[in-house]
Amino acid sequence: MGIRFILMVNKQGQTRLAQYYEYLTLEERRALEAEIVRKCLARNEQQCSFVEHRNYKIVYRRYASLFFLVGVDNDENELAILEFIHLLVETMDRHFGNVCELDIMFHLEKAHFMLEEMVMNGCIVETSKSSILAPIQLMDKMS
Amino acid sequence: MKFKQTLNTPTKTPNFSIVIFLSLNWNLPSPKTNPKPMAGSSLMENLFQRTLEDLIKGLRLQLIGESAFLSKAIDEIRREVKSTDSDTKANALHKLTYLSSLHFYDMSFAAFHVVELLSSTRFSHKKIAYHAASHSFTDDTPVLVLITNQLRKDLTSTNELEVSLALECLSRIATVDLARDLTPEIFTLLASSKVFVKKKAIGVLLRVFDKYPDAVRVCFKRLVENLESSESQVVSVAVGVFCELALREPRSYLPLAPEFYKILVDSRNNWILIRRTGAKSLLFECIRTVVTSLSDYESAVKLVVVKIREMLVDDDPNLKYLALQALSVVAPKHLWAVLENKEVVIKSLSDVDPNIKLESLRLVMAMVSESNVAEICRVLVNYALKSDPEFCNEILGSILSTCGSNVYEIIIDFDWYVSLLGEMSRIPHCQKGEEIEKQLIDIGMRVKDIRPELVRVSRDLLIDPALLGNPFLHRILSAAAWLSGIYVEFSINPFELMEALLQPRTTLLPPFIRAVYVQSAFKVVIFCLNAYLLQRGNAASSSYIDKLVPDVPGLVSERDDPESSDLASCDSPVHCKQDEGFNPRVSNQSFDGLFAEHGGEETATCGQSRMKKVWGREEAPASQIIRLMHDAFSNDLGPVSVSAQERVPVPDGLVLAKNLEDLETIFGDVQLPSLNSVSLGSPQYEDRAGFSLPILQSKEEPGPSNESTSLLADHRKQHGLYYLPSAKNEDEYPPANDLKLQADTNDGDEDLVKLTEQLLVSKKKPNYVKPRPVVV
């Protein structure tokens, strides 16, 4: 599976984006997000970006007021996932121009489309910013 | 006014060669939204319908409370989603998916409407419908059977965006039926001329293979062909799929090794060879590969350990953490790699990051061996004393599990280990009571030679009134009490033990542990009385009796009490009566139940005959009881294997009922004795073990001036105020203090590192004072 879920959570612990690659009930998602947010947001700058949780790991990184949290299997390369997070932020930045939390809130669908271009079945499938954004620009033109 | 804070300011900058822009734009939020195209709709409801954007804005400004606002919105959506106007329906589903995804609202009620919208000819509707389906459909969604044809239609669409939507959706929700029915379409798309479509067709295979393994036969060849595609994006996805497949069943994919090697050597793709980052993640990938899969290749491991060391001393906590983890992986086969870095590892025990501390603890435990276990544990206990409660207990837990593993395999000196257990119990944050209890009792039963030391350690724990105030230690005290009772013959001063077992603060213990205290006190009494009787009978044949009796002056002098002499000669009719009713099960129920059931009779007879032999005359009944009980208690209890029960053959003709409900009718009004009801003052106790009660009480009461009371006075003096049973102040006792421990606390990290270094460097075998005792 590789990536199990991707969350974007603000400093107050509110989820701004949640994408799951395995089926969890709404209650399981609520519990999982609460636990993870509590665990990760309590950590400080001097601490590493990896947290073990249940039987998998969370790789997270903070950009301004937003935390990007990615749940991955234990055999995943943590540094590669940090790279992935950074690529995601750069891609959103290219699309929105100085991307901020509000952009993601009001364009959640687009953020999801970018993720769908990048990840499929929990596998990373695309890492070129222009390839990720091409279909989204096409969709913008169509509507 | 809110300012727009952009996201391209990562709060941490590891070794990535990425330029960071810090930009704060003092703009009003200007989300680039495009208003929904409503022009086509002429319906009133659509005009007044709130869009998702309205909903989000409303949610930010609402004053009625978030949940009230949201439930109003959901009510609205429930109405709108039934609309015949597809714009209204799309809008409603758009909002609903948002609320479901971020606010956990159940949207299964709208499943049919999602299916309806999927067939819309407008792309913007289709987009919303596919997103809603991906998010909310599960294998159990009933309407799922209705979408097969729509998916087939979209998979064969000329619009590649529609094909992409359908493939994305399939990768999330494909069921066995969908995977089977749509395999032909996916097979076709695997050869699509459009890279955009082809790579998604490859990506979806993982789910399709999972749900419908027969699809492998159809699609596998094309999947392999894509490994050699000239399009690097396609190769990248195919490699990703193979990685996942190979994880599940590595052997099947070994024949593809040459293809993979070729990709590894030739590829320049940025994901396969993550080139953007100064190759830190790629380097780490290589390290991971070597430590997990190539650990038999000495030269590779040597190279990798050099790289791990570089990461270990890096300032970036991420690299340090991952390096520690990598060391943990190599540790079992290449302990030298850990030993080479021991200094950094030990220092990391006091890192600011709890995750790094945990990893280094794991590594320290990996270094433990027979020859250094004592020294490492000393270092760790000192860290435990200085750590926060959570890490302190992680340390204690690691020590316990490492030392206890494989029946204390690495422990040579049990004297040391048992006193370490006692020391660990006194660490203020210790919450490992249950495990320490288990090990104390386990060692007591398995290692015969250690029992005197166990009794000494137990005595030290029992005698400290402060420990009774810490609920985490109650289980340890329970073990200490049990050990002191069962191995009382090793006690230097049983009288002191008795005082400890009956001190007023034992009221702080939960009833089931007080029961153990009471039983142990009883065993101590029986032991003392027996010793006294032996001495009085002028037949002190056992060597320990001579040693014991002078140590218990109180006991001897108690002879003068009318009550004790009554007991000895047993003239009292009350005692005779209780004699008949005596039942070993009652006093032995906690630990000795098994023994009492099967061995009671036998011991009784043998005890009696022995007494006759020793004293050469008929004994008074009370002395007999004491002899009997003493013999019962002094029978050794060995550890019982978990599978022992299975090895007991079922006797012929015995029918074992599966359901024991019948018992209830048989025992209808019999009150089974419950452990919790046993307490000193309860009438139940007086009934069953009444004859011992006067003795217990006589020790509590200030009696006539004799040595017993002077001892009691000494004890009172030592433990001062704890003697007055004042319930109000009970919880204000100072924490347990151990001078020896406190002295050690002052050691700095440096000293610990030095100490550890010394012990790890000096390879010479320590001189054991004595050989390892027999462990059964």
UniProtKB/TrEMBL annotation, chain A:
GO terms for cellular component: cytoplasm; endomembrane system. Residues 3-142 form the AP complex mu/sigma subunit domain. One of its GO terms (biological process) is intracellular protein transport. Keywords: Membrane, Protein transport, Transport. The keyword Transport applies. InterPro entries: AP_complex_ssu, AP_mu_sigma_su, Longin-like_dom_sf. SUPFAM superfamilies: SNARE-like. Gene3D superfamilies: 3.30.450.60. It is found in: Endomembrane system. Belongs to the adaptor complexes small subunit family. This is AP complex subunit sigma.
UniProtKB/TrEMBL annotation, chain B:
It comes from Prunus yedoensis var. nudiflora. It comes from the Eukaryota. This is AP-3 complex subunit delta-like. It holds the Pfam family Adaptin_N. One of its GO terms (cellular component) is AP-3 adaptor complex. Residues 726-745 are annotated as: Disordered. Belongs to the adaptor complexes large subunit family. GO terms for biological process: Golgi to vacuole transport; protein targeting to vacuole. InterPro entries: AP3_complex_dsu, ARM-like, ARM-type_fold, Clathrin/coatomer_adapt-like_N. Gene3D superfamilies: Leucine-rich Repeat Variant. Coiled coil: none annotated.
